[in-house]
# Entry
Amino acid sequence: MLYSQRMLFNQGDTHMSAIRPFRCFDSRVIVVALGVAAWFIAGAWLSRMFAPASPVRILIAFAQAAALATLVLVIRRSIIRLDELARQIHYQALAVLAAMMVTAIAGWAFLQQAGLPAIDWSFYGAPAFVVAWAVGVIWIARRYE
Amino acid sequence: VRNSVRELRAARNWSQGDLAERLAVSRQTVNAIENEKYDPSLPLALKIAQLFSLRVEEIFGDEARVAPRGRDNN
# Structure
């Protein structure tokens, strides 16, 4: 009896095992993210040298959007390579996040119509998305521990 | 869904890490399955069944606790 109990929780076993869904944010993802952030700053600085709506400025804007799309693809690839439980945690967090973001943006639009100041979602949207995603992943991972 | 993964694993003297390695998943996933916090995908359930030489319904479901012993005890 004692032997069998021991075998249930033998070496390497913990009853409350912490899930590590953030393993997908490895050094490669961090390097790409830092590169994209650097390009955003450089692009913003470069854009100021050209007139609004000028071809070069539009080209820089496209290049910034392309960099963001690249980052999304790199993160997606990292999530796909995760273990199936960690992957499911990310997908659930993203689903909840999408619903929350739509609610927040639409909700604020109503408040804006009621007289509250406008929010620049192009500036605050991405950081809010990342923070809400991280909180969502931590919150959902706790269900499986 | 109830399952007998913990009993089957213990019968083979495997740690959660050993089983995770054989299934190519993380130890946390094995732990969540054993604690019935997470139901594995069909491919993973089939892999578990194949590893223990049992049918999926012998490991997962209400009858899982009744017959946790596999045909293969290696």
In short: The interface with chain B takes residues 4, 7-8, 10-15, 17-20, 83-86, 88, 143-145 of chain A (CB under 8 Å). The radius of gyration of chain A is 21 Å. DSSP finds five helices and no strands in chain A. The first helix of chain A runs from residue 2 to 8.
